[in-house]
Design a protein that fits this description.
With 339 residues, this protein is α/β, with parallel strands linked by helices. It is built from twelve helices and twelve strands. The strands form two sheets. Strands 6, 7, 8, 9, 10, 11 and 12 form a seven-stranded mixed β-sheet that branches. Strands 2-1-3-4-5 form a five-stranded parallel β-sheet, sandwiched between helices.
Length: 339
């Protein structure tokens, strides 16, 4: 195709030559209305080549995740990117934003802004009235929102993607009780209490331990809040006053600090230590028999389910079940199945 023809076509469509080239060669990055003008002009001048199918602007999807140093969210972000890349730029444009968990106001403002220029959102958020208001605003504008990992009951969301958090906590409690071979004390370290997932894990764990293993004494929950310095200080105080520690359950971040504290007190590998997520550190601790068990949330399945459900809704109007369609199966990992 000669350059002159490109110029003529550009003039007829009222766009630049580079825009014509992008549309005809399907390079993306062109607004749908502009692309339609170019294709219409090409048909009118009888351009002798196979024209692309009617241009469809890719879905603009926003994923909002925690900006903390949690392995899970870093892996989840990578999985979302890989899945979007596999779908291709014509199908979806993925926008990722990371917001500190200590900045809920910033999160609210970002959700409201996204409701103006995104086709759909996938959000990890706290269960707060302002967040509920922001999601209701999205629904009013026709923008579907999927919640990730920790649910927001009663919020205007399309569905929730995640594991059954109470079940995960109860499973951790059951495994802890079965593994213990003597009475003693168990410490519970919790992540942020303003996230429902951590509260549910603790509640499930505590319920099973009290119902089925009455000889085990549960100490008060240590509210680590996923703050490493806080976790270190709380463990320093509590390990020094525990006469017979036989187990420790950690629902969130801080496995480095937990393992260091247990090692300092000669308890690493001697008490039953159960935590969450499989990554380099927990894999190493499992292989050394320092961690007895980790419950992995399966980040890849979160990303795949969320993307599939949102696209089916946007493209076909297929409404998912609030929980059933987004349920993720967690995995129990020991030293025998880390690979």
């Amino acid at each position: 195709m000669k350059k002159l023809t490109l110029q003529m076509l550009a003039q007829r469509a009222g766009v630049g030559v580079a825009t014509v080239d992008r549309v005809l060669n399907e390079r993306g990055g062109v607004a749908p209305e502009t692309a339609r003008k170019v294709l219409q002009a090409a048909r009118e001048v009888g351009l002798k080549r196979i024209l692309p199918e009617e241009y469809r602007y890719p879905w603009q999807i926003e994923v909002i995740l925690s900006a903390g140093d949690s392995f899970f969210f870093k892996q989840l972000a990578r999985d979302f990117s890989q899945i979007a890349d596999g779908l291709g730029y014509r199908r979806i444009t993925l926008h990722r934003t990371f917001i500190q968990e200590s900045q809920p106001d910033k999160l609210v403002q970002h959700i409201l802004e996204c409701s103006k220029n995104r086709d759909g959102l996938m959000v990890f958020a706290q269960d707060q009235p302002a967040i509920h208001h922001a999601l209701a605003f999205c629904k009013a504008r026709g923008v579907p929102v999927i919640t990730l990992v920790t649910d927001l009951p009663g919020a205007q969301r399309l569905c929730h993607i995640g594991i059954n958090q109470p079940q995960a906590g109860r499973t951790a409690g059951l495994m802890m009780g079965k593994m213990l071979n003597r009475p003693g004390e168990v410490i519970m370290v919790s992540g942020r209490f303003d996230y429902r997932a951590h509260r549910q894990r603790i509640e499930g764990f505590r319920d099973v331990m009290r119902q089925r293993f009455p000889l085990i004494r549960l100490r008060e929950v240590l509210a680590g809040q996923d703050e490493r310095k806080v976790i270190t200080e709380l463990l320093k105080q509590n390990l020094a006053t525990s006469a017979n520690l036989v187990g420790l359950y950690n629902t969130g971040a801080g496995n480095t600090e937990v393992s260091q504290a247990l090692k300092h007190h000669g308890l690493l590998g001697k008490c039953i230590y159960i935590t969450h997520e499989l990554y380099a550190l927990t894999r190493s601790l499992l292989e050394k028999d320092a961690v007895a068990l980790t419950l992995d949330q399966n980040a890849r399945q979160h990303a795949q389910l969320a993307t599939d459900i949102l696209l089916r809704y946007l493209e076909n109007g297929e409404a998912p079940g609030l929980y059933a369609d987004g349920k993720v199966d967690f995995r129990l990992i020991t030293s025998e199945n880390t690979c």
